[in-house]
Amino acid sequence: MADGNSISLYFDLKPGEKADLEIVAEAALKWAETVKLAARLIEPNAKIRIELLDAEPGSLRLNTVLDWLEEQLERIETGSGRHRRLRNLAIALAAFVASATATELIFGNETLQLEDADRQLLQELLEKIGEAPEVQDNTRRFYRVLERDSSITAIGVSESRKDPPLILVPSDQFPERGGLFALQEDEDERVIYSTLEVTLVSPVLLNTPRAWTFRMEGLPEFTAIMGDANFLAALDDAHVHESLRNGITMKIKLEIKEQKVRGEWKVKSKGRKVLKVISPEIG
Q1: Residues 6+ apart with CB under 8 A from 1
Q2: Is 183:235 a contact under the CB 8 Å cutoff?
Q3: Quick one: pLDDT at residue 55?
Q4: Ordered alpha helix ranges (H), 45-181
Q5: Could you tell me whether strands 249-261 and 264-279 are parallel, antiparallel, or unpaired per DSSP bridges?
Q6: Is-contact 214 200, C-beta < 8 A?
Q7: How far apart are CA 56 and CA 65, in angstroms?
Q8: What would the DSSP string read from start to end of 143-158?
Q9: Bridge partners, residue 64, by sequence
């Protein structure tokens, strides 16, 4: 086993229950397909072998190894590709980042032991992988398989069988990540969901769904319709735990409607909507 190439797919189970073997096997195959897609985005001519080493009972782990061809390893370990561990991490996390923001996944994750510069590089890799439509489609199929087994309470991935999961996705998020709420009627339109940490630029202090303006560091400002009725009602009653000031940070769950224009996905006019304000809290 090449050092740094080990990956463990982790299934958290209900106490006293066992996962359905066929569902676990099907989910593992979908995840393996996503891993291979992600590898090709990093190394276009990638041909990797994913080998199942063993499985552990209780909370189930499927331990695998990514086996790159020798000439590919030489390219990955030189020049801009010298950070082999970061590339393997990005590939391992591919099934998770397509449905969540890379920023949310990487920064603030205490389990992930990386220097800031490496976190930034890993974020860039994950954003590249997460933007690929084929990865997004395969990821949705992965979560739709997991939905079929109620004994699975969470899914995660770690760097080895001994390490804690780098990320855990609870089963109540499987339907959303599986595309339950996405528009399916037109292949030239889609709806994606992201949870973002943003800075508030311009609110509309009316109890009505109007466009608010936000920004993220290093990105242009964007507008989104404030569609969280509970949050708007709390503003009316002064029940939001925040005071009006510069630099208010918010964590929001965003719905983004896109359409394909000349082969590229573009956000539709008024296509962003805040479904829920996670913070600041209301009460």
Answers
A1: 53, 65
A2: no
A3: 58
A4: 70-76, 84-92, 94-97, 102-106, 116-130, 133-146, 174-177
A5: antiparallel
A6: yes
A7: 15
A8: HHHHTT-TTEEEEEEE
A9: 7, 52
Contacts of residue 31, Cβ cutoff 8 Å, sequence gap at least 6: 9, 95, 142
Give the Cα separation of 224 and 90 in Å (integer).
Answer: 29
Measure the CA–CA gap between 56 and 77, rounded to whole angstroms.
32
Q: Which residues face 155 on adjacent strands?
A: 11, 169
Regions of the chain with pLDDT less than 50: 1-3, 69-82, 181-185
Residue 228, sorted as left (phi over 0), alpha (psi -120 to 50) or beta, turns out to be: beta
Tokens of 13: 């189970």
For 141, list phi and psi in degrees, rounded to 5: -65, -40
Alpha carbon 109 to its chain's center: 13
How far is Cα 237 from Cα 240, in angstroms, rounded to an integer?
Answer: 8
Q: Hey, what are 12's tokens?
A: 């958290």
**How much is the pTM?**
0.56
Q: Quick check: bond before 165 cis, omega within 30?
A: no
Cβ-based neighbour number of residue 165 at 10 Å: 19
What gap in Å lies between CA 278 and CA 258, rounded to an integer? 23
Q: How far is CA 270 from the centre of its chain?
A: 24
Tell me what pLDDT residue 76 has. 44
- Which one-letter amino acid corresponds to residue 27? A
* Dihedral angle sign, alpha carbons of residues 66, 42, 4, 21: negative
- Residue identified by tokens 């208010």 is 248
| 239 close to 283: Cβ distance less than 8 angstroms | yes
What pLDDT, on a 0 to 100 scale, did the predictor assign at position 78? 43
pLDDT of residue 179: 67
